[in-house]
Amino acid sequence: MNKRTFLIGFSLFLLTALHAQSDPKATAILNKVSKLYKSYSGIKSTFTITTTTNQNKSTSSNGTVWIKGTKYKLDYAGQEIFCNGKFIWTFNKEDNEVTKENYKVKDNAITPNEIFTIYNRDFKNAYEGPTVKDGKTYEVIKMVSKKKVNYSYIKLEIDKSNNKIQRMIQHYKNGTEIIYSIGQFTPNTSLADNFFEWNPASHPGVAEVDLTKK
Asked: Were both Cys, which of 91, 130, 132, 182 would link to 80 (CB 3.0–4.6 Å)?
């Protein structure tokens, strides 16, 4: 799986739309999670993505995401992505090149700013019960998209003691499994708006490709 797929996939780490077809217990839990994450003015979080193929081969990578409303910054897999809600800059560190594009929300993709707050997405939710790991109890919720997507379903593991999402497991039809694990989580992080914009002065010598005028 390529870096771009990881970057899009990571943003699936989240909640979901609360619809009548969803399990009432799952909906009640997600309402609590929703209220918690909506209360944060900004978020900084580290994460680990582990991919296991249908041949049982695994790879892991770490990253960091910053979120403020519709704005986000993502540092992962040799790339930095800046989004101010209007434009998105993708900085490839290895190539020393940054690409600027108009920001668009795609039907079959969830963006990093929605990691913890996807309240308007169409999922059917089901509560699968608690699971205990390392002495902590996590509520497990299975989510199946009502729209055509490239994965079968996702599961959330939510810490029962504080209503925070700890892991998301994404299952694909070909047997591939991707686990997104939250590491250090810092709520109410103070982030200036220009933190989410590319600053050429801070990156001298980087080649810029502007695709916004095409």
From this structure: 91
For residue 30, the enclosing domain spans 3-121+183-210
Looking at the structure of the chain, the number of domains it has is: 1
How far apart (Å, rounded) are the C-alpha atoms in residues 94 and 97? 8
34: nearest Cα among 154, 167, 185, 163: 163
Beta bridge partners of 49: 61, 180
pLDDT (tens digit per residue) in 67-78: 998 889 999 888
Place of tokens 């910054």: 73
CA atoms of 209 and 89, how far apart (whole Å): 9
Torsion angles phi and psi, residue 43, rounded to 5: -135, 140
Distance between CA atoms of residues 47 and 65, nearest Å:
8
Note whether 78 and 3 are within 8 A (CB): yes
Q: What is the CATH number of the domain that holds 79?
A: 2.50.20.10
94 CB neighbour count, 10 Å cutoff = 7
Give every residue of the chain whose pLDDT is below 50, as ranges.
8, 12-20, 119-120
CA 183, CA 181: separation in Å to the nearest integer?
6
